[in-house]
Design goal:
Pfam families: Pentapeptide. With 151 residues, the protein is mostly beta strands. It has no helices and four strands. The strands form two sheets. A two-stranded antiparallel ribbon has the order 1-2.
Length: 151
């Protein structure tokens, strides 16, 4: 029996199970997948992966290495990206705005150096003074909300 899905399983650096996801059979890497509520805190296993057009709604990716990832057109509303390394990531047309309940995407302490943010929806996302942005990026004009630093 043919299937129109393929299975992707994630484990952390210690081999602990993070989750199993089913993607369209013709998708490349992790594109077009539903990774809503993925919990992969403090890992580097997703570094450089393509999550283009994927659903990462309420994903918990705090302190993870997401450098070089492609999140173009992805839904990251309500995600926890505190302290995440997003250096060089492609976030073009991604949605990091408020979730359906008005909750903010949290990017305090995240590193967006060299990230592509053209068309990225950031209105309501929370940042702090340790969040690093690409040169010339203005979080206030993007509608982001500054919060007190993490303790």
């Amino acid at each position: 029996m043919a299937t129109d899905k393929r299975r992707v399983a994630f484990t952390d650096e210690d081999g602990d199970h993070l989750g199993v996801y089913y993607l369209p059979a013709d998708s490349i890497d992790c594109e077009d997948g539903d990774f809503s509520a993925l919990c992969a805190m403090g890992t580097a296993v997703l570094r450089g992966r393509s999550f283009a057009r994927s659903n990462l709604y309420w994903a918990i990716l705090a302190d993870s290495d997401l450098s070089g990832c492609i999140f173009q057109g992805a839904d990251l509303r309500g995600a926890n990206l505190r302290g995440a390394n997003l250096a060089g990531a492609n976030l073009r047309d991604a949605d990091l705005g408020l979730d359906a309940l008005g909750g903010a995407t949290r990017v305090q302490g995240a590193d967006f150096s060299g990230a592509q943010l053209h068309g990225c929806k950031l209105e309501g996302a929370q940042y702090d003074d340790s969040t690093r942005f690409p040169a010339g990026f203005d979080p206030v004009s993007a509608g982001m909300i500054e919060t007190a630093p993490r303790r």
